[in-house]
């Protein structure tokens, strides 16, 4: 199985900050990586697919990059609505696997 | 509007069984593979199972293989998950999710399964 490791597990930042979350795969997954945002008690929301494609309706302050085994999610200017948890997911091969999550907190 | 509505969750004793359902609407259900994804309380996301549009190909996570069975009825626009030999570690919110490629662009609201004596 492909293991997905996110870092950091928790990130403290302020409104307006530029933040980056990293996701590493235990083996190459090409660009078959997605990023989700999940607010407490809510359903995960797809932000980025194919490593860098922005899902329709997602603000342009979110961006993704990477290929192979290392990927990043960047929020260019944190907004109050962005303080929540983010997950990466590989869909290169079954079983599809998720990272453990990164919680973005208010500093 | 795409809608996925899960049902069938509840409290069950260890070793018991439960059948989850997912009613789909707003898209051509028979054209999509479908998935179950779960999330234990306060934990991350775990993909559980996938079934292709015709039902010809099915995949399971190792953690549920041999105990869970995914199925679908395209005439009823419905997805199912039969869960047998349930364990405490199966306690989770179970989401029905529509994939695009292999990521998930639409999710149901989830149904809570609690396995406890």
Spell out the key features of this protein:
heterodimer; A: 107 residues; mainly beta; 7-stranded mixed β-sheet; 4-stranded antiparallel β-sheet; B: 117 residues; 0% helix; globular
Description of the structure:
The complex is a heterodimer of chains A (107) and B (117). Chain A has strands at 4-7, 10-13, 19-25, 33-38, 45-49, 53-54, 62-67, 70-75, 85-90, 97-98, 102-106. With 107 residues, chain A is an all-beta fold. Chain A starts with a strand and ends with a strand. Chain B is mainly β and 117 residues long. In chain B, the strands form 2 sheets. In chain B, strands 2, 4, 5, 6, 9, 10 and 11 form a 7-stranded mixed β-sheet that branches. The relative contact order of chain B is 0.31. The chains are: A mainly beta (107), B mainly beta (117). The A-B interface holds A 1, 32, 34, 36, 43-44, 46, 49-50, 55, 87, 89, 91-92, 94-101 and B 44-47, 50, 59-62, 95, 99-105, 107-110.
Quickly describe the structure.
The complex is a heterodimer of chains A (107) and B (117). Chain A has 107 residues and is an all-beta fold.
Number of H/I helices of chain B: 0
Q: Helix-strand pattern of chain B, N to C?
A: EEEEEEEEEEE
Tell me, rounded to a whole number, the average pLDDT of chain A. 97
The radius of gyration over CA of chain B amounts to 13 Å
Helix content of chain B: under 10%
Q: What is the terminal-to-terminal distance of chain B?
A: 40 Å
User: What is the gyration radius of chain A calculated from CA atoms?
Assistant: 13 Å
The succession of helices and strands of chain A, N to C, reads: EEEEEEEEEEE
pLDDT < 50 runs, ≥5 residues of chain B:
none
Q: Output mean pLDDT of chain B.
A: 97
DSSP helix count of chain A? 0
Unreliable residue runs of chain A: none
Q: Which structural class should the secondary elements of chain A be placed in?
A: mainly beta
Structural class of chain B: mainly beta
């Amino acid at each position: 199985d492909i293991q997905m490791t996110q870092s950091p597990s928790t990130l403290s930042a302020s409104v307006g900050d530029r933040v980056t979350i990293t996701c590493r795969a235990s083996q190459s997954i090409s660009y078959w990586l997605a990023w989700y945002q999940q607010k407490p008690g809510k359903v995960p929301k797809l932000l980025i697919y194919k490593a860098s494609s922005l899902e329709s309706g997602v603000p342009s302050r979110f961006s993704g990059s990477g290929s192979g085994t290392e990927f990043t999610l960047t929020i260019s200017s944190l907004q109050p609505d962005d303080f929540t948890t983010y997950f990466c997911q590989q869909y290169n091969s079954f079983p599809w696997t998720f990272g453990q999550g990164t919680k973005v907190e208010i500093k | 509007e795409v809608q996925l509505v899960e049902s069938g969750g509840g409290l069950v004793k260890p070793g018991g069984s439960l059948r989850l359902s997912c009613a789909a609407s707003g898209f051509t259900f028979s054209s999509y593979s479908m998935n179950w994804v779960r999330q234990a309380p306060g934990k991350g996301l775990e993909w559980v199972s996938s079934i292709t549009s015709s039902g010809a190909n099915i995949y399971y996570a190792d953690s549920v293989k041999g105990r869970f069975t995914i199925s679908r009825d395209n005439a009823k626009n419905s997805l199912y998950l039969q869960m047998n030999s349930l364990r405490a570690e199966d306690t989770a919110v179970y989401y029905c999710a529509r994939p695009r490629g292999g990521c998930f662009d639409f999710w149901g609201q989830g149904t809570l399964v609690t396995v406890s004596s």
